[in-house]
Amino acid sequence: MSTIGIGVVGAGNIAEFHLAAYAANPDVEIVAVADIAVDRARARADQFGAASAYASVEELLADPAVDAVSICTRNDTHVQIAIAALGAGKSVLVEKPMARTVADAEALVAAEAVAPGILQVGYVRRWSTNATVLKTFVDAGDLGEVYYAKATCLRRAGNPGGWFADRSVSGGGPLIDVGVHFIDIAWWLMGMPTVVSVTGFTSDRVGDRGNIENLTRWRSSDHDASENTVEDLAGAVIRFDNGAVLNVDVSYSLHGRDEVGVRLYGDRGGAELEPELLVFTEQHDTIVTLAPQIDSTTFEMEAGFQNEIDGFVAAVRDGTPSAVPATHGLVMTKILAAIYESAASGHEVVVA
Ligand SMILES: NC(=O)c1ccc[n+]([C@@H]2O[C@H](COP(=O)([O-])OP(=O)(O)OC[C@H]3O[C@@H](n4cnc5c(N)ncnc54)[C@H](O)[C@@H]3O)[C@@H](O)[C@H]2O)c1
Prior knowledge:
- By secondary structure, this protein is an alpha/beta fold.
- It is built from 10 helices and 15 strands.
- Helix 2 links the parallel strand 2 (28-34) and strand 3.
- It is globular and about 65 Å long.
- The termini are far apart.
């Protein structure tokens, strides 16, 4: 194919990041945008010069000019749309969380295995330069064996409301929304070890903090502050078959400091990916901290999406395997489901 025809399903907030990155990729033509709110699809199509705006995913998938699809809809539709798109012969970039249940994730893995196209899960943090640089250090053995890691994303007043706060649509709160990014990046940097068991907890004592004024925050396109059925806070201890442990804490609402952290501890060295890339080790019986000199030592959203979408387009163009296949999304889905199950039961959950 000369240029790759792109269709974007879901024309809300995150679709704009996808569309801007496709628009900057010379191998792409943005062909169509679809949204059940067709005015929103039309506005995004006009904004990015797409020929067609559709009111349904079925119309977009029937468009022969569409070779590959970004799925930017709310969480409850990801798997159904991804399976339909793969079945229509399209390649797929599906936003996180890939799935809300293990059964759904397994169905998508099965669809991916027989599809002519590829599927890439939208773990955008893996594509950030600070992450790819740290991965080269880890893979070269500079940290030795990583036996402990921490993944933190604490928001003081960060509940987006709307469908994000409706468990029946989203599948959960900060754990499935932002926790999935931080658990995935830590797991990937740890070398993707096999999960053995999970102990988790959730809390909902603070609420969505919809009363807070004078503070701009990420809002769902259909924000309605009246409904909130998701946790405020979640945490977990995840054990792997190589003996390593990953400690997680994430929140939408918390009386404490906003914080992001991805930290790795190995027997030869350690590292912080977030809040800022640093490597900790020792040389000549002296403790040293390495501060890699790169354009950005933290995660930046526009650059992360550009790298993610450039990687997806290159794989579709070259016919190479997905860098982030549905099998990775299945592992994340199993971890998230086990954390919620452990929180509900109060017991450790063995992950098969
Ligand atoms: N990678 C990231 O950092 C990141 C950041 C934000 C959101 N997200 C993910 O992106 C997805 C969308 O989030 P958002 O913030 O853009 O939400 P949003 O509410 O702003 O937009 C979702 C859009 O999908 C449309 N939609 C819903 N069901 C549809 C269907 N069946 N067919 C077509 N359109 C449909 C809605 O009308 C809406 O316009 C979510 O899964 C979210 O988890 C990822």
